[in-house]
From TrEMBL:
PROSITE patterns: DIHYDROOROTASE_1, DIHYDROOROTASE_2. Keywords: Hydrolase, Metal-binding, Pyrimidine biosynthesis, Zinc. This is Dihydroorotase. The gene is pyrC. It is an enzyme of class 3 (hydrolase). It comes from Lihuaxuella thermophila. Catalyzes the reversible cyclization of carbamoyl aspartate to dihydroorotate.
Length: 435
């Protein structure tokens, strides 16, 4: 199977400018990137992309696909369809399912289901502790054998320093990164929003910055001698950014991710106590948000990841204090970031794309994220001019929980190709691939 993408524009790696290119895909590989490529072979499918932007397929290192156990919120199929629509070709999924993904058998099940669905490459994380209960380490070696790319108890922090230290030793011996949801329960328990202006105004119990930052600091200390790759999930507090910056300056192998919502929103943007704005970590102060942008720009924060966390509308209707934490992100990440960071001059297009493609692949050692001849044919085609209103009713995800409904944004993915196969084509809404 050959696919020729004509008249698209790609980022020139040396200048960061957009240049016209044609791309020929043969099977699962990018065969050629050039100018005036023609379909020599009549079997070749030709797609005219005149003027559209072609990036390497987007990578999201933090999503919740909810299978097994929470299929009412999302399934691997609906979650990966949402990923494809959002321009993502690779997603790494979190183990806080029911049962928790804490064994090789469950890892294999997730991989098999994802392959069957076929809409995105799914890389599973395994849990650090059995049932994410914080008491006993999982069989990381067996899970690695089954295909995990790292270990995490995302959803909860690992409360015991001793447990975390042992986990780091074990993960390091296996060459696995430790991916941490940083949250000290003794500081965070009972809070539902950031301990700041909004919490005070509505008399809600707050989650302070230190609930995150003490874990970041503790873990950096624990990891220092062990030498393990330590990755901070959804960094949100200015103090955490400072700690990661200092660790990097000392040469420690510490990386961090930030979500689109923490980059674009702060607690003062929350209009009223409404669980569409509830996630963990919470939206912090505008000063924290500025520190995240600065950290992203200076390389302290390596990548952008969505923390796509679908919940049902019934669950979210329980209100700010009782609803579960989390918002969806896969179908809105790129246009939101393009509109609010690139078009406003905060990041260049090349910087944004780098943090969603090459960089995540680099820090997790994945063979994706680069648009080059001989590489896997993972591509995302984006219409940088197309402007649309975010409408949760159109989501392919089962989750509709987003605070961004109604936002008008530019830069929508229109065609996604994973391993040489079209996984999302806006022009063809009756897409039946994978069925
Ligand atoms: O907002 C969040 N949602 N934060 C988490 O840590 C967990 C996630 C979820 O699983 O819903
Ligand atoms: Zn988390
Ligand atoms: Zn998460």
């Amino acid at each position: 199977m050959k696919l020729l993408l004509q008249n698209g524009r790609v980022l020139d790696p040396t200048t960061g400018e957009l240049v016209h290119k044609d791309i020929l895909i043969e099977g699962q590989t990018i065969a050629k990137i050039g100018t005036d490529l023609n379909a020599a072979d009549p079997e070749t499918e030709v797609i005219d992309l005149s003027g559209k932007f072609i990036s390497a397929g987007l990578i999201d290192m933090h999503v919740h696909l909810r299978e097994p156990g929470f299929e009412q919120k999302e399934t691997i199929e609906t979650g990966t369809r949402a990923a494809a629509r959002g321009g993502f070709t690779t997603v790494a999924c979190m183990p806080n399912t029911r049962p928790v993904i804490d064994s090789a058998e469950l890892v294999k099940e997730v991989i098999a289901k994802a392959e069957q669905a076929g809409y995105a490459r799914v890389l599973p994380y395994g849990a650090i502790t059995v049932r994410e209960a914080g008491q006993e380490l999982t069989d990381m070696a067996a899970m690695k054998e089954a295909g995990i790319i790292g270990v995490t108890d995302d959803g909860v922090g690992v409360q015991s320093s001793k447990m975390m230290k042992e986990a780091m030793r074990k993960a390091h011996s296996l060459g696995l990164p430790v991916v941490a949801h940083c949250e000290d329960d003794s500081l965070a328990k009972g809070g539902c929003v950031h301990d700041g202006q909004f919490a005070a105004r509505f008399r809600l119990k707050g989650i302070p910055n230190e609930a995150e930052a003490v874990h970041v600091g503790r873990d950096i200390l624990l990891a220092e001698d062990i030498g393990v790759h330590y990755h901070v999930c959804h960094i949100s507090a200015a103090q955490s950014v400072r700690l990661v910056r200092e660790a990097k300056a000392r040469g420690q192998k510490v990386t961090a991710e930030v979500t689109p919502h923490h980059l674009l929103l702060c607690d003062e943007d929350i209009p009223e106590p409404n669980a569409m704005w509830k996630m963990n970590p919470p939206l912090r102060s505008s000063r924290d948000r500025e520190a995240l942008i600065e950290g992203l720009k200076d390389g302290t924060i390596d990548i952008i990841a969505t923390d796509h966390a679908p919940h049902t509308l019934e669950e979210k209707a329980a209100g700010m204090e009782r609803a579960p934490f989390g918002i969806v992100g896969l179908e809105t990440a790129f246009p939101l970031l393009y509109t609010h960071l690139v078009l406003r001059g905060v990041l260049t297009l090349a910087e944004l794309v780098d943090k969603m493609t090459r960089k995540p692949a680099e820090i997790f050692g994945l063979p994706y994220g680069v648009l080059a001849e001989g590489k896997p044919a993972d591509l995302t085609v984006i219409d940088l001019e197309e402007e649309r209103t975010i409408d949760p009713d159109t989501f392919l995800s089962k989750g509709r929980n987003t605070p961004f409904a109604g936002w008008r944004v530019k830069g929508w993915p229109v065609l996604t190709i994973m391993n040489g196969k079209i996984t999302w084509n806006q022009a063809d809404t009756a897409l039946t691939f994978g069925e």
